[in-house]
Amino acid sequence: HLSIFCPMRSPRPFLALGSAAAVITFLPLLAHSSAADPGREAEERRLLVRPAALCARARAGAFYRLAGGGTREGERRGGPASVGGEIRPAYDYDLLVIGAGSGGIACARRAAGHGARVGVVERDRLGGTCVNVGCVPKKVMWNAASIAETVHTMRHYGFFGADAVGFDWAHIKRARDAYVSRLNGIYGANLKKSSVDLLEGTASFVDAGTIAVASPDGSRTTYTAANVLIATGGQPVMPPGDGVNEHCITSDGFFELEELPRRAVVVGGGYIAAELAGVLRALGSEVVLVLRGPRVLRHFDSMISDGLDAEMVRQGIDVRRETGGVASVILGDDGRKHVTLRDGGTVSGADVVLVATGRVPFVEPLDLPAAGVATRSSGHVAVDDLCRTSVPNVHAVGDVCGNVELTPVAIAAGRRLADRLFGPEEWAYAKAGYELVPTVVFSHPPVGTVGLTELQAVEKYGAEAVRVYSSQFTNLYYGPFPLDYDEKPKTVAKLVCAGPDELVVGLHIMGMGADELLQGFGVAMRMGATKADFDSCVAVHPTAAEELVTFAPWGLGPQETGAVVSPLNGAPPPEPRSMGVSN
């Protein structure tokens, strides 16, 4: 009779038990805690099996009971039967994921790869916000808008006939929607390939280990799980105002538009509003951008927000500032909207009023109190840096947590959660990083940023410890344009450095190519690059990216590196440690 204290991970100690029969009692600990919570009674599960058979089926977080053991009425439907007629898991799943968005699917597939039994509950299309009404279709429309800009300026490179080039909104909508539909299918195929069960319906907690799924056909099934992941994402929210709910659309509604609006009002100053206003303007709409505050992207570095604001005005976007938002929207007899702003201003004749003033976590159907899951005042699920909620076996990743609301962050957090729960011991405390996260705004022109703004750096380190390098220039692409310098679109770039070693703590750029050049610099900053490290990298010429490694004074700052192997002053490149080559 062997009793084992087993974290919610793979019970590897059984591998040493050989083939002798044994009575085994699982005494589960809280995941990753140094000792069991004395105030929480551990649930015992007993079974009589051959250990070899147990090890063949053991999955992280799973508890086993005697085959044929009783269950409460209505529970554990759809769960596995016995294994070789000997054992039956006490839970249907080692991990049950609520939400098949980027973070949820990433966690589910990673966990299944580690050997866990995983189910995913989804009430809508697979892929979540990013695939269906976010990053992916938005980037398609950004690409279309970028092509429109190229057509508009192609005469400067000797190409003519722009007046004969037409744009068919219905065509790109059909193509975009078909692409998204293919992605939905790919996500489904990948889940199946990973042996992850897809449970269609709306999930809600019965308790911390039991989830009820209301299917589209009206039936209701409950499933039990050793671990539950909340990955339901967020949803756009409408601000208060007469007629706002009735006559406005959100960013989700943008992707349902059947035609390009002649005149559009975009309400909001964040990245979604900036992106969609830029797309509409580039494709030919008259655009009025309504800001509650003084400028767009006001939480970004001032160089970025001021620069993008100026570019929007140069492109012909009518920017209304310090309005306080929308007070009312009235539908006229002609089918167009009349918008009254809180500062008394008005906008008439709008075909579309698109509101992008914020998003909230999607938690309403979950019945979080039934599981005892705590939320913050904002409604977001409260988690620690290991994605743990107030309930030990319930976790959360992605926008529902309100940390860094970006798809790649949710994916990284989901995968690391699966590694901690089900992976090898060396991953027991692995976690995603939430600092120095590269971010791109697909505005026109695009914006790339990673790390602290200049103001944030000064607040953190003090003005004396911060040094800023910045520049403004015209991309070579605009060189042949017969325009004065002031009339050409600008690229702006900034490095924010701190400390005597001039550690790069912030990088900000706006202009053509900013979206594609940012990733590599994010890697360098995560590795602790200094201004001298940037200077030590020979510039790629002629590119916009070279500006970031040639800020004046070039090569004359503190000669300190953040690298394990110094790249300064012509030093040889690093070699793999396994090769035994001395640096």
Describe the structure.
- The protein is of the alpha/beta class.
- It is built from 14 helices and 26 strands.
- Helix 2 packs parallel to helix 11 (407-422) and helix 4 (135-153) runs parallel beside helix 8.
- The longest helix is centred in the N-terminal third of the chain and has 25 residues, at 169-193.
- It is globular, with a radius of gyration of 28 Å.
The biggest beta sheet is recorded as: 7 strands, mixed
* Alpha-carbon Rg, integer: 28 Å
Q: What proportion strand?
A: 15-25%
Number of helices: 14
Number of E strands: 26
Distance linking N and C termini: 56 Å
The oligomeric status of these chains comes to: single chain
Shape: globular
Tell me the structural class: alpha/beta
Unreliable parts: 1-88, 579-583
**Helix coverage percent:** 25-40%
Mean pLDDT: 86
Write a compact overview of the structure shown.
This protein is α/β, with parallel strands linked by helices and 583 residues long. It is built from 14 helices and 26 strands. Strands 6, 7, 8, 9, 10, 11 and 21 form a seven-stranded mixed β-sheet that branches.
Which key phrases capture this entry?
583 residues, alpha/beta, 7-stranded mixed sheet, 14 helices, 26% helix, globular
